[in-house]
Design goal:
Layout: H1 3-16, E1 20-22, E2 34-36, H2 38-57, E3 62-64, E4 70-71, H3 74-78, H4 81-84, E5 86-91, E6 98-100, E7 121-124, E8 128-130, E9 140-143, H5 148-152, H6 155-162, E10 168-177, E11 192-202, H7 207-224, E12 232-236, E13 248-256, E14 259-270, H8 272-281, E15 287-288, E16 295-296, E17 299-306, H9 307-318, E18 319-324, E19 327-332, E20 343-347, H10 353-367, E21 373-375, H11 381-391, E22 395-399, H12 401-404, E23 413-418, E24 424-428, H13 429-440
Parallel strand pairs: 3-10, 20-21, 20-22
Antiparallel strand pairs: 1-2, 4-9, 5-6, 5-7, 8-9, 10-11, 11-17, 12-13, 13-14, 14-17, 15-16, 18-19, 22-23, 23-24
Helix pairs in contact: 2-9
The structure holds adenosine-5'-triphosphate.
Protein backbone atom coordinates (compact mmCIF):
# COMPACT_ATOMS: atom_id res chain seq x y z
CA UNK A 1 0.00 0.00 0.00
CA UNK A 2 1.53 3.36 -0.91
CA UNK A 3 1.31 6.28 1.46
CA UNK A 4 -1.31 8.26 -0.42
CA UNK A 5 -3.40 5.16 -0.63
CA UNK A 6 -3.07 4.62 3.11
CA UNK A 7 -4.16 8.19 3.81
CA UNK A 8 -7.21 7.81 1.55
CA UNK A 9 -8.15 4.57 3.30
CA UNK A 10 -7.87 6.14 6.74
CA UNK A 11 -9.95 9.18 5.73
CA UNK A 12 -12.58 6.93 4.18
CA UNK A 13 -12.75 4.53 7.13
CA UNK A 14 -12.91 7.44 9.57
CA UNK A 15 -15.95 8.85 7.78
CA UNK A 16 -17.68 5.55 6.95
CA UNK A 17 -17.47 4.23 10.49
CA UNK A 18 -18.31 7.44 12.35
CA UNK A 19 -14.91 8.55 13.63
CA UNK A 20 -14.28 11.83 11.79
CA UNK A 21 -16.48 13.88 9.44
CA UNK A 22 -15.54 16.95 7.38
CA UNK A 23 -16.75 20.07 9.25
CA UNK A 24 -19.98 21.71 8.00
CA UNK A 25 -20.18 19.00 5.37
CA UNK A 26 -23.76 19.50 4.17
CA UNK A 27 -22.85 23.11 3.33
CA UNK A 28 -19.79 22.13 1.36
CA UNK A 29 -17.40 22.11 4.31
CA UNK A 30 -15.14 24.68 5.95
CA UNK A 31 -11.40 24.36 5.36
CA UNK A 32 -9.37 23.35 8.38
CA UNK A 33 -12.30 22.02 10.41
CA UNK A 34 -13.39 18.47 11.14
CA UNK A 35 -16.08 17.03 13.44
CA UNK A 36 -15.65 13.94 15.58
CA UNK A 37 -18.48 11.43 15.21
CA UNK A 38 -19.85 8.86 17.67
CA UNK A 39 -16.77 6.63 17.69
CA UNK A 40 -14.24 9.44 17.20
CA UNK A 41 -15.55 11.26 20.22
CA UNK A 42 -15.00 8.21 22.43
CA UNK A 43 -11.53 7.57 21.00
CA UNK A 44 -10.69 11.24 21.62
CA UNK A 45 -12.00 11.03 25.18
CA UNK A 46 -9.98 7.87 25.80
CA UNK A 47 -6.80 9.60 24.57
CA UNK A 48 -7.51 12.62 26.74
CA UNK A 49 -8.37 10.49 29.78
CA UNK A 50 -5.16 8.53 29.47
CA UNK A 51 -3.20 11.78 29.13
CA UNK A 52 -4.97 13.20 32.19
CA UNK A 53 -4.09 10.18 34.25
CA UNK A 54 -0.44 10.01 33.14
CA UNK A 55 0.28 13.77 33.05
CA UNK A 56 -1.92 15.00 35.91
CA UNK A 57 -3.76 12.55 38.13
CA UNK A 58 -1.07 9.91 38.76
CA UNK A 59 1.22 12.62 40.07
CA UNK A 60 1.15 14.60 43.31
CA UNK A 61 2.65 17.73 41.79
CA UNK A 62 0.07 18.45 39.06
CA UNK A 63 -3.16 20.49 39.09
CA UNK A 64 -5.79 21.21 36.47
CA UNK A 65 -7.45 24.32 35.12
CA UNK A 66 -10.08 24.89 32.46
CA UNK A 67 -9.62 28.50 31.39
CA UNK A 68 -11.83 30.59 29.11
CA UNK A 69 -11.03 30.58 25.39
CA UNK A 70 -11.71 34.32 25.15
CA UNK A 71 -9.16 36.20 27.20
CA UNK A 72 -8.15 39.80 27.74
CA UNK A 73 -6.23 40.75 24.56
CA UNK A 74 -3.40 42.18 26.70
CA UNK A 75 -2.40 38.58 27.40
CA UNK A 76 -1.55 38.01 23.76
CA UNK A 77 0.29 41.31 23.55
CA UNK A 78 2.45 40.37 26.55
CA UNK A 79 3.11 36.85 25.26
CA UNK A 80 4.33 38.20 21.93
CA UNK A 81 1.52 36.64 19.88
CA UNK A 82 0.03 39.91 18.63
CA UNK A 83 3.39 41.02 17.30
CA UNK A 84 4.88 37.72 16.28
CA UNK A 85 2.51 34.74 15.99
CA UNK A 86 2.75 34.74 12.25
CA UNK A 87 3.79 32.59 9.34
CA UNK A 88 5.36 33.85 6.12
CA UNK A 89 2.85 33.87 3.26
CA UNK A 90 3.25 34.24 -0.51
CA UNK A 91 0.46 34.73 -3.01
CA UNK A 92 0.40 33.54 -6.61
CA UNK A 93 -0.10 36.58 -8.84
CA UNK A 94 -2.05 34.51 -11.34
CA UNK A 95 -4.40 32.14 -9.44
CA UNK A 96 -4.29 34.14 -6.15
CA UNK A 97 -3.72 31.00 -4.08
CA UNK A 98 -1.75 31.52 -0.88
CA UNK A 99 1.05 29.32 0.37
CA UNK A 100 3.32 29.18 3.38
CA UNK A 101 6.59 30.58 2.08
CA UNK A 102 8.66 28.27 4.33
CA UNK A 103 6.85 25.25 2.84
CA UNK A 104 7.94 26.28 -0.66
CA UNK A 105 11.67 26.56 0.23
CA UNK A 106 13.31 26.52 -3.24
CA UNK A 107 10.20 26.78 -5.38
CA UNK A 108 9.99 29.90 -7.52
CA UNK A 109 6.70 29.32 -9.36
CA UNK A 110 3.19 28.62 -8.05
CA UNK A 111 2.93 24.85 -7.47
CA UNK A 112 -0.71 24.91 -8.67
CA UNK A 113 -0.58 26.98 -11.89
CA UNK A 114 3.10 27.86 -12.46
CA UNK A 115 2.23 31.57 -12.09
CA UNK A 116 4.72 34.05 -10.61
CA UNK A 117 4.81 34.29 -6.81
CA UNK A 118 4.53 37.67 -5.09
CA UNK A 119 6.77 38.82 -2.28
CA UNK A 120 6.78 37.18 1.15
CA UNK A 121 4.89 38.90 3.97
CA UNK A 122 4.05 37.94 7.54
CA UNK A 123 0.53 36.76 8.28
CA UNK A 124 -0.72 36.74 11.90
CA UNK A 125 -2.54 33.50 12.60
CA UNK A 126 -4.74 34.60 15.49
CA UNK A 127 -8.48 34.70 14.84
CA UNK A 128 -9.97 38.03 15.88
CA UNK A 129 -13.50 38.66 17.00
CA UNK A 130 -15.44 41.33 18.88
CA UNK A 131 -16.72 41.11 22.43
CA UNK A 132 -19.81 43.16 23.16
CA UNK A 133 -22.27 44.99 20.99
CA UNK A 134 -19.98 47.58 19.40
CA UNK A 135 -17.56 46.61 16.70
CA UNK A 136 -14.89 49.13 17.66
CA UNK A 137 -11.28 48.19 18.15
CA UNK A 138 -11.44 48.50 21.92
CA UNK A 139 -13.58 45.36 21.98
CA UNK A 140 -11.31 43.15 19.88
CA UNK A 141 -10.63 39.75 21.43
CA UNK A 142 -8.71 36.78 20.05
CA UNK A 143 -9.58 33.10 20.05
CA UNK A 144 -6.65 31.64 21.97
CA UNK A 145 -3.94 30.25 19.67
CA UNK A 146 -2.67 27.90 22.39
CA UNK A 147 -4.06 26.76 25.73
CA UNK A 148 -0.87 27.81 27.58
CA UNK A 149 -2.05 31.43 28.00
CA UNK A 150 -4.84 30.42 30.37
CA UNK A 151 -2.35 28.48 32.48
CA UNK A 152 0.14 31.34 32.93
CA UNK A 153 -2.60 33.81 33.81
CA UNK A 154 -3.88 31.42 36.49
CA UNK A 155 -0.46 30.72 38.00
CA UNK A 156 -1.06 33.18 40.86
CA UNK A 157 -4.60 31.89 41.47
CA UNK A 158 -3.37 28.32 41.80
CA UNK A 159 -0.50 29.33 44.11
CA UNK A 160 -2.79 31.44 46.30
CA UNK A 161 -5.58 28.86 46.51
CA UNK A 162 -3.76 25.51 46.60
CA UNK A 163 -0.32 26.58 47.93
CA UNK A 164 1.65 24.00 45.94
CA UNK A 165 5.36 23.59 46.55
CA UNK A 166 7.73 24.06 43.64
CA UNK A 167 8.26 22.18 41.39
CA UNK A 168 4.62 21.81 40.35
CA UNK A 169 2.65 22.03 37.17
CA UNK A 170 -0.72 22.96 35.72
CA UNK A 171 -2.37 20.86 33.02
CA UNK A 172 -5.14 21.83 30.65
CA UNK A 173 -6.98 20.30 27.72
CA UNK A 174 -8.90 22.53 25.38
CA UNK A 175 -9.49 24.08 22.01
CA UNK A 176 -7.05 26.42 20.31
CA UNK A 177 -7.49 28.31 17.05
CA UNK A 178 -4.96 29.13 14.36
CA UNK A 179 -5.78 30.72 11.06
CA UNK A 180 -3.41 28.40 9.20
CA UNK A 181 -2.53 29.65 5.72
CA UNK A 182 -2.86 26.20 4.20
CA UNK A 183 -4.81 23.73 6.37
CA UNK A 184 -4.13 20.23 5.06
CA UNK A 185 -3.48 16.57 5.60
CA UNK A 186 -6.83 15.69 7.16
CA UNK A 187 -6.71 16.44 10.90
CA UNK A 188 -2.96 17.20 10.90
CA UNK A 189 -3.12 20.94 10.18
CA UNK A 190 -6.40 22.37 11.41
CA UNK A 191 -7.71 25.85 12.07
CA UNK A 192 -9.60 24.63 15.14
CA UNK A 193 -7.64 22.09 17.17
CA UNK A 194 -7.40 20.61 20.65
CA UNK A 195 -4.29 20.69 22.80
CA UNK A 196 -3.20 18.88 25.95
CA UNK A 197 -0.65 21.15 27.61
CA UNK A 198 1.37 21.21 30.80
CA UNK A 199 3.28 24.18 32.17
CA UNK A 200 5.64 22.78 34.78
CA UNK A 201 7.12 25.43 37.08
CA UNK A 202 10.63 24.88 38.42
CA UNK A 203 13.46 26.78 40.01
CA UNK A 204 15.97 27.74 37.30
CA UNK A 205 18.47 25.24 38.75
CA UNK A 206 16.10 22.33 38.17
CA UNK A 207 15.11 22.83 34.56
CA UNK A 208 17.35 20.17 33.01
CA UNK A 209 16.15 17.39 35.29
CA UNK A 210 12.49 18.35 34.79
CA UNK A 211 13.00 18.51 31.02
CA UNK A 212 14.33 14.93 31.05
CA UNK A 213 11.44 13.67 33.20
CA UNK A 214 8.79 15.06 30.84
CA UNK A 215 10.71 13.85 27.84
CA UNK A 216 10.57 10.31 29.23
CA UNK A 217 6.89 10.61 30.08
CA UNK A 218 6.10 11.69 26.50
CA UNK A 219 7.75 8.52 25.21
CA UNK A 220 5.79 6.44 27.74
CA UNK A 221 2.59 8.09 26.57
CA UNK A 222 3.45 7.30 22.94
CA UNK A 223 3.90 3.68 23.94
CA UNK A 224 0.67 3.60 25.97
CA UNK A 225 -1.40 4.82 23.02
CA UNK A 226 0.18 2.18 20.80
CA UNK A 227 2.63 4.19 18.65
CA UNK A 228 5.61 1.95 17.81
CA UNK A 229 8.89 3.40 19.08
CA UNK A 230 10.34 3.18 15.58
CA UNK A 231 7.81 5.75 14.30
CA UNK A 232 8.41 8.48 16.90
CA UNK A 233 11.58 10.55 16.47
CA UNK A 234 13.11 13.34 18.48
CA UNK A 235 14.31 16.43 16.66
CA UNK A 236 16.54 18.76 18.65
CA UNK A 237 15.41 22.13 17.30
CA UNK A 238 18.45 24.32 16.51
CA UNK A 239 18.67 27.73 18.20
CA UNK A 240 17.85 29.72 15.06
CA UNK A 241 14.58 27.77 14.56
CA UNK A 242 13.37 27.92 18.18
CA UNK A 243 10.62 30.27 19.36
CA UNK A 244 12.10 33.47 20.81
CA UNK A 245 11.31 32.43 24.40
CA UNK A 246 12.78 28.94 24.22
CA UNK A 247 16.26 27.88 25.34
CA UNK A 248 15.70 24.28 24.33
CA UNK A 249 13.03 22.58 22.22
CA UNK A 250 12.59 18.99 21.14
CA UNK A 251 9.99 18.23 18.51
CA UNK A 252 8.56 14.74 18.71
CA UNK A 253 8.03 13.81 15.09
CA UNK A 254 5.92 10.98 13.73
CA UNK A 255 6.14 9.13 10.43
CA UNK A 256 2.80 10.15 8.93
CA UNK A 257 1.89 8.78 5.49
CA UNK A 258 2.70 12.26 4.08
CA UNK A 259 6.12 12.44 5.73
CA UNK A 260 7.89 12.86 9.05
CA UNK A 261 6.17 15.78 10.80
CA UNK A 262 5.76 17.34 14.24
CA UNK A 263 3.47 15.36 16.50
CA UNK A 264 4.23 17.07 19.86
CA UNK A 265 6.64 19.62 21.28
CA UNK A 266 8.66 19.87 24.48
CA UNK A 267 10.10 23.29 25.29
CA UNK A 268 12.07 24.99 28.04
CA UNK A 269 10.42 28.42 28.07
CA UNK A 270 12.65 29.94 30.79
CA UNK A 271 10.82 32.58 32.89
CA UNK A 272 9.73 34.37 29.72
CA UNK A 273 5.97 33.96 30.18
CA UNK A 274 5.59 34.68 33.88
CA UNK A 275 7.97 37.64 33.67
CA UNK A 276 6.20 39.08 30.64
CA UNK A 277 2.76 38.73 32.29
CA UNK A 278 4.09 40.14 35.58
CA UNK A 279 5.39 43.23 33.79
CA UNK A 280 2.36 43.75 31.60
CA UNK A 281 -0.26 43.13 34.30
CA UNK A 282 1.62 44.78 37.16
CA UNK A 283 1.25 41.69 39.30
CA UNK A 284 3.88 39.88 41.30
CA UNK A 285 4.13 36.44 39.70
CA UNK A 286 7.16 35.31 41.67
CA UNK A 287 7.31 32.38 44.04
CA UNK A 288 8.58 32.46 47.61
CA UNK A 289 10.39 29.35 48.77
CA UNK A 290 9.30 29.06 52.41
CA UNK A 291 12.39 27.10 53.41
CA UNK A 292 15.17 29.08 51.76
CA UNK A 293 13.22 32.38 51.78
CA UNK A 294 14.37 32.80 48.21
CA UNK A 295 11.95 34.68 45.95
CA UNK A 296 12.12 34.21 42.18
CA UNK A 297 10.08 33.93 39.01
CA UNK A 298 9.77 30.20 38.23
CA UNK A 299 11.05 28.80 34.96
CA UNK A 300 8.85 26.58 32.82
CA UNK A 301 9.01 23.25 31.01
CA UNK A 302 6.18 22.79 28.53
CA UNK A 303 5.13 19.45 27.05
CA UNK A 304 2.54 20.37 24.43
CA UNK A 305 0.53 17.66 22.70
CA UNK A 306 -2.05 18.13 19.95
CA UNK A 307 -5.02 15.80 20.38
CA UNK A 308 -5.88 15.70 16.67
CA UNK A 309 -2.32 14.92 15.53
CA UNK A 310 -2.23 12.21 18.21
CA UNK A 311 -5.46 10.73 16.87
CA UNK A 312 -4.11 10.74 13.31
CA UNK A 313 -0.86 9.06 14.43
CA UNK A 314 -2.91 6.40 16.23
CA UNK A 315 -5.12 5.73 13.20
CA UNK A 316 -2.07 5.61 10.92
CA UNK A 317 -0.21 3.08 13.00
CA UNK A 318 -3.29 1.00 13.82
CA UNK A 319 -4.55 0.57 10.24
CA UNK A 320 -3.94 -2.96 8.94
CA UNK A 321 -5.05 -5.09 6.04
CA UNK A 322 -4.68 -8.82 5.70
CA UNK A 323 -5.97 -11.56 3.46
CA UNK A 324 -8.88 -13.53 4.88
CA UNK A 325 -10.25 -16.18 2.58
CA UNK A 326 -10.77 -14.60 -0.83
CA UNK A 327 -10.87 -11.04 0.26
CA UNK A 328 -9.02 -8.45 2.28
CA UNK A 329 -9.86 -7.64 5.84
CA UNK A 330 -9.21 -4.10 7.12
CA UNK A 331 -8.89 -3.55 10.84
CA UNK A 332 -7.62 -1.08 13.39
CA UNK A 333 -5.15 -2.66 15.80
CA UNK A 334 -5.95 -0.09 18.50
CA UNK A 335 -4.49 -0.51 21.98
CA UNK A 336 -7.41 -1.95 24.04
CA UNK A 337 -6.95 0.90 26.53
CA UNK A 338 -8.03 3.50 23.98
CA UNK A 339 -10.30 1.44 21.68
CA UNK A 340 -13.75 3.09 21.67
CA UNK A 341 -15.50 -0.29 22.01
CA UNK A 342 -13.82 -2.89 24.22
CA UNK A 343 -15.90 -5.90 23.20
CA UNK A 344 -18.99 -6.80 21.19
CA UNK A 345 -21.49 -9.41 22.35
CA UNK A 346 -23.76 -11.16 19.93
CA UNK A 347 -26.16 -14.12 19.73
CA UNK A 348 -25.22 -16.53 16.93
CA UNK A 349 -28.77 -16.25 15.51
CA UNK A 350 -31.04 -13.33 16.21
CA UNK A 351 -34.30 -15.20 15.70
CA UNK A 352 -33.68 -17.62 18.57
CA UNK A 353 -35.07 -15.95 21.71
CA UNK A 354 -33.14 -18.27 24.04
CA UNK A 355 -29.81 -17.25 22.42
CA UNK A 356 -30.76 -13.57 22.49
CA UNK A 357 -31.77 -13.74 26.15
CA UNK A 358 -28.52 -15.44 27.14
CA UNK A 359 -26.44 -12.99 25.08
CA UNK A 360 -28.19 -10.04 26.75
CA UNK A 361 -27.42 -11.57 30.13
CA UNK A 362 -23.72 -12.02 29.21
CA UNK A 363 -23.50 -8.42 27.95
CA UNK A 364 -25.09 -7.09 31.15
CA UNK A 365 -22.58 -9.10 33.18
CA UNK A 366 -19.59 -7.75 31.20
CA UNK A 367 -20.95 -4.20 31.32
CA UNK A 368 -20.65 -4.26 35.11
CA UNK A 369 -16.89 -3.89 34.71
CA UNK A 370 -16.82 -1.72 31.59
CA UNK A 371 -19.56 0.26 29.89
CA UNK A 372 -18.14 0.13 26.33
CA UNK A 373 -19.47 -3.35 25.53
CA UNK A 374 -21.44 -3.23 22.28
CA UNK A 375 -24.34 -5.32 21.03
CA UNK A 376 -24.64 -6.45 17.42
CA UNK A 377 -27.10 -8.96 15.97
CA UNK A 378 -27.22 -7.60 12.41
CA UNK A 379 -26.32 -9.79 9.44
CA UNK A 380 -24.26 -12.95 9.75
CA UNK A 381 -21.56 -13.44 12.33
CA UNK A 382 -18.73 -12.93 9.82
CA UNK A 383 -20.08 -9.50 8.86
CA UNK A 384 -20.42 -8.53 12.51
CA UNK A 385 -16.79 -9.46 13.14
CA UNK A 386 -15.64 -7.38 10.14
CA UNK A 387 -17.57 -4.34 11.34
CA UNK A 388 -15.94 -4.58 14.76
CA UNK A 389 -12.50 -5.16 13.21
CA UNK A 390 -12.85 -1.92 11.27
CA UNK A 391 -13.54 0.11 14.40
CA UNK A 392 -10.79 -1.59 16.37
CA UNK A 393 -12.84 -3.62 18.88
CA UNK A 394 -10.32 -6.02 20.47
CA UNK A 395 -12.80 -8.80 21.37
CA UNK A 396 -16.01 -10.32 20.02
CA UNK A 397 -18.08 -12.69 22.14
CA UNK A 398 -20.60 -15.06 20.59
CA UNK A 399 -23.32 -16.98 22.37
CA UNK A 400 -24.38 -20.22 20.66
CA UNK A 401 -26.29 -23.40 21.44
CA UNK A 402 -23.31 -24.88 23.28
CA UNK A 403 -23.52 -21.93 25.69
CA UNK A 404 -27.05 -23.14 26.47
CA UNK A 405 -25.85 -26.72 26.98
CA UNK A 406 -26.29 -28.49 23.63
CA UNK A 407 -22.86 -29.99 24.28
CA UNK A 408 -23.15 -30.50 28.04
CA UNK A 409 -19.45 -30.02 28.86
CA UNK A 410 -19.50 -26.61 27.08
CA UNK A 411 -22.54 -25.27 28.95
CA UNK A 412 -21.98 -21.69 30.15
CA UNK A 413 -19.00 -21.12 27.87
CA UNK A 414 -18.87 -18.61 25.01
CA UNK A 415 -16.65 -18.02 21.97
CA UNK A 416 -14.07 -15.26 22.41
CA UNK A 417 -12.65 -14.00 19.11
CA UNK A 418 -9.46 -11.94 19.00
CA UNK A 419 -9.37 -9.01 16.56
CA UNK A 420 -5.75 -9.14 15.41
CA UNK A 421 -5.42 -12.87 14.80
CA UNK A 422 -9.04 -13.85 14.19
CA UNK A 423 -8.37 -16.76 16.59
CA UNK A 424 -11.21 -18.06 18.69
CA UNK A 425 -11.30 -19.77 22.06
CA UNK A 426 -13.95 -21.22 24.30
CA UNK A 427 -14.12 -19.63 27.75
CA UNK A 428 -16.48 -19.02 30.65
CA UNK A 429 -17.97 -15.55 31.01
CA UNK A 430 -15.80 -14.92 34.10
CA UNK A 431 -12.69 -15.83 32.09
CA UNK A 432 -13.76 -13.48 29.28
CA UNK A 433 -14.24 -10.66 31.79
CA UNK A 434 -10.72 -11.34 33.07
CA UNK A 435 -9.27 -11.21 29.55
CA UNK A 436 -10.95 -7.87 28.82
CA UNK A 437 -9.82 -6.44 32.14
CA UNK A 438 -6.20 -7.48 31.73
CA UNK A 439 -6.09 -6.21 28.12
CA UNK A 440 -7.35 -2.79 29.21
CA UNK A 441 -5.09 -2.56 32.21
P1 LIG B 1 3.76 23.39 13.15
O1 LIG B 1 5.22 23.75 13.07
O2 LIG B 1 3.45 22.03 12.60
O3 LIG B 1 2.86 24.48 12.64
P2 LIG B 1 3.88 24.33 15.82
O4 LIG B 1 5.33 24.15 16.14
O5 LIG B 1 3.39 25.69 15.47
O6 LIG B 1 3.43 23.26 14.71
P3 LIG B 1 3.13 24.29 18.55
O7 LIG B 1 2.88 25.75 18.60
O8 LIG B 1 4.34 23.75 19.19
O9 LIG B 1 3.04 23.77 17.04
O10 LIG B 1 1.83 23.57 19.13
C1 LIG B 1 1.87 22.46 20.01
C2 LIG B 1 1.18 21.26 19.41
O11 LIG B 1 -0.14 21.58 18.98
C3 LIG B 1 1.86 20.70 18.18
O12 LIG B 1 2.94 19.85 18.53
C4 LIG B 1 0.73 19.94 17.54
O13 LIG B 1 0.53 18.67 18.15
C5 LIG B 1 -0.48 20.81 17.83
N1 LIG B 1 -0.78 21.69 16.69
C6 LIG B 1 -0.21 22.87 16.40
N2 LIG B 1 -0.76 23.44 15.31
C7 LIG B 1 -1.72 22.58 14.90
C8 LIG B 1 -2.67 22.60 13.82
N3 LIG B 1 -2.74 23.62 12.98
N4 LIG B 1 -3.52 21.55 13.69
C9 LIG B 1 -3.47 20.51 14.55
N5 LIG B 1 -2.61 20.45 15.58
C10 LIG B 1 -1.75 21.46 15.78
Amino acid sequence: MNDQNLMEKIVSLAKRRGFIFPGSEIYGGLAGTYDYGPLGVVLKENIERLWLSMFRDDRDDMYGVDAAILMNPKIWEASGHVAGFSDPVVECEKCKKRFRADHLADVEKCPECEGALGSVRQFNMMFKTHAGATEDTSAIVYLRPETAGGIFTNFKNVVDSIHPKLPFGIAQIGKAFRNEIAPRDFIFRLRELSQMEVEYFVSPKEWKQAFEEWRKLMHLFAEAIGLPQSTVHELEVPAQDRAHYSKRTIDFEFDYPFGRKELWGLAYRTDFDLSAHANASNNDLSYLDEETKEKFVPHVIEPSLGVDRTMLAILTSAYREDAMGDDTRAYLALAPKIAPVKAMVSPLLKNKPELVAKAREVRAELKKAHSAIAWDDNGNIGKRYRRQDEIGTPFCITIDFDTLGETPELKGTVTLRHRDTGKQERLTVAEVAGRIRSAIE
